[in-house]
Write a structure and sequence with these properties.
The complex is a heterodimer of chains A (about 280) and B (about 350). Helix content of chain A is about 80%, strand content about 0%. Chain A has about 280 residues and is mostly helical. Chain A has one domain: MetI-like fold, CATH 1.10.3720.10. The longest helix of chain A has about 35 residues. Chain A starts with a helix and ends with a helix. With about 350 residues, chain B is mostly helical. In chain B, helix 1 packs antiparallel against helix 15. The chains are: A mainly alpha (about 280), B mainly alpha (about 350). Chains A and B meet through helix 5, helix 6, helix 9, helix 10 and helix 11 of A and helix 1, helix 6, helix 7, helix 13 and helix 14 of B.
């Protein structure tokens, strides 16, 4: 524990704990939600829009559902949304970027120009266009954001591939007659895994923010499933008189995104510190 | 010579990117949606109506031919008609684009106005509480969901304090009884042209909250970039010389150090502009701002694909042009950029 604090500093450790806490909440949702049925979407019309109280710590929504339970269930959707976006984007960006960096020449030129086209769009706008075209829904919103997200990984992976293809061990493998796909998969991919996984883990926060924005526009999951962005939007009609409806999910998004960005800063500082120490 | 080659290369690449963007928008807006003809034909269409719509939209033509038609129409500024309102989209864009650009320009200005001086302060007091506070603010501004910040600002400044208007672009009294004559569509500019200080002040007040919402994230980025650039420059010798000469610290910071740290400011302008153009989709709904963002969000609900495609095209081309200008400016300011 103290070693972790030493490495990440207090803010970074706190942020990491916060993220792990939310992951645990998502996994254990049915066990810890005070009103599991309401969390999953069952209405309770007798208690509509109640302010926070002993029964409902964070108040209730317009169908009388316990806000805390809804938020706990929404954690599953929002977190897995963020993680799937990053995973999908890696799945596309990694092969494209590695191929571009490894082969160079016209392959590189062609792949990177395609990547440029995707990067030319303001990200949220392309996601909105995609999501509108595919229709609302959990998987569609994941695909829509991934389409705007993968070029960044392609660029990162290309930079790694460019460096690695000149390494002696890669050249040795090529001389030994190992096929190109096998070199990329067995010799280059593992070496890029570390910097990229760190980056990817940190990107779950921003990805989740983008997904929340799509949900807010009505392009995310469909009711009765809830996610944080959609809850903020649903509460907008009752804002600011019933402030808790929008404020609770809004603050939740903020805390999670903040944790990811604080953790990212801590890791970056640590890398900088390590570079300075070794220099 | 290198600079001219660099500029030419950037221009050719941008032209290529615009073609690619057009292709992608064509695929997503015209090929992916299941049946554009049914949407075009209106509510509960008959089979003949759909068939007629298919012919009008030229849906039976082969894909490459359809793409060429689409690209030619886009290049000519002919965006077609809206499925829903049956109005010419080009006319709608002309009405809504200035409102969004006004917001984008204003918020970019705000981001620089807050971000750069804060970054200078943080660098000057490196490691002490103004620096820590500034860094915390910068991190928070990245993590804050735009739409939630917009609602919070409304709550505090419009509902509680009552010092700012809740939403809209101008007060209803002015819009109805003494409207400002339209010349450019930029309300601040128009009210100055017509010499209407009352309308100018009112429009400016309406701008503050939405612009502040859109400025918060780029201001945070501006602050961080300025801070790190300034820290590096403050260690250079000409600063030490200026200190040894006993120049006042304000003049050293803003007169001798900051001009050397202006590279990041250019980056931030581009980033902030892009952020404002897309954030507009979220912010304009909340502040009832009559711009492209609200236009497109209504089109999303109605599955009005020609409108969504047109807005995406126009905004993306603005964005590509903006990036091109910034790249060229950066190469002119710092010729080393052109060598990479």
């Amino acid at each position: 524990m103290s070693r972790l604090v030493q490495r990440l500093g207090w803010p970074g450790t706190l942020a990491l704990a916060c993220i792990l806490g939310f992951v645990a909440i998502g996994i254990l949702a049915p066990l810890i939600a005070p009103w599991p049925a309401q969390g999953a979407g069952a209405p309770n019309v007798a208690a509509r829009l109640m302010p926070p109280s002993a029964d409902h710590w964070l108040g209730t929504d317009h169908l009388g559902r316990d806000m805390l339970s809804r938020l706990i269930y929404a954690t599953r959707v929002s977190l897995s949304n963020g993680m799937l976006i990053v995973a999908f984007s890696l799945l596309i960006g990694l092969p494209v970027g590695l191929a571009a960096g490894y082969f160079g020449g016209w392959v590189d030129e062609a792949l990177m120009r395609v990547t440029d086209v995707f990067l030319a769009f303001p990200a949220l706008l392309l996601a909105v266009l995609m999501a509108a075209s595919l229709g609302p829904g959990f998987l569609n919103s994941v695909i829509a954001v991934s389409v705007t997200w993968w070029p960044w990984y392609a660029r990162l992976a290309r930079a790694e591939g460019l460096v690695l293809r000149g390494q002696p061990y890669v050249e040795a493998a090529r001389l030994a007659g190992v096929s190109h796909p096998r070199i990329i998969l067995r010799h280059i991919l593992p070496a890029t895994a570390r910097p990229l996984t760190v980056q990817a883990a940190l990107d779950v926060g921003p990805a989740l923010l983008t997904a929340a924005a799509l949900s807010f526009l009505g392009l995310g999951v469909l009711p009765p499933t809830a996610d944080w962005g959609q809850m903020v939007d649903a509460g907008r009609k009752f804002f600011p008189d019933r402030w808790w409806y929008s404020a609770m999910p809004g603050v939740t998004i903020f805390i999670v995104a903040l944790s990811f960005s604080v953790l990212g800063d801590a890791l970056r500082d640590r890398r900088k510190g390590a570079a300075r120490a070794s220099a | 010579m290198d600079i001219i080659r660099y500029i030419l290369r950037r221009m050719v690449l941008s032209a290529f990117v615009v073609v690619g963007v057009t292709f992608l928008v064509f695929i997503v807006a015209q090929v992916v949606p299941s049946d554009p003809a049914a949407l075009y034909a209106g509510p509960r269409p008959t089979a003949e109506q759909i068939e007629k719509a298919r012919q009008e939209l030229n849906l039976d033509a082969p894909l490459p031919a359809r793409f060429v038609t689409f690209a030619q129409a886009m290049a000519a500024g002919d965006f077609g008609i809206s499925y829903k309102s049956r109005r010419l989209i080009a006319e709608d864009l002309k009405a809504y684009l200035p409102a969004t650009l006004e917001l984008a320009v204003f918020s970019t200005g705000m981001a620089l106005l807050f971000g750069v001086p804060l970054g200078v302060m943080a660098a000057a007091r490196q490691g002490r509480w103004p620096d820590r506070l500034g860094s915390l603010g910068a991190i928070a501004s990245v993590a804050m969901p735009t739409f939630f910040l917009a609602m919070l600002l409304q709550l505090v400044f419009a509902q509680w304090l009552g010092i700012m208007p809740l939403s809209g672009r101008i007060s209803r009294e002015i819009a109805i009884s003494t409207p400002v004559p339209q010349a450019t569509g930029f309300l601040l500019f128009d009210s100055l042209l017509a010499w209407r200080p009352d309308a100018f002040a009112d429009a400016a007040r309406h701008l503050v909250l939405p612009a502040l919402t859109l400025a918060s994230y780029p201001a945070g980025v501006a602050m961080r970039l300025t801070r790190s650039a300034m820290i590096e420059i403050l260690e250079r010798r000409h600063i030490a010389a200026a200190r040894a000469l006993g120049l006042p610290s304000g003049r050293i910071l803003f007169g001798h150090a900051l001009p050397n740290a202006m590279g990041p400011a250019l980056t931030v302008i581009g980033l902030s502009f892009a952020y404002a153009l897309t954030g507009a989709v979220l912010v304009e709904i909340i502040f009832a701002w009559p711009g492209l963002g609200r236009y497109v969000s209504e089109a999303i609900l109605a599955k009005d694909f020609p409108v969504i495609a047109a807005v995406t095209m126009v905004v993306t081309v603005c964005y590509v042009a903006m990036n091109l200008i910034i790249d060229i400016a950066q190469a002119l300011v710092d010729p080393r950029v052109a060598l990479t």
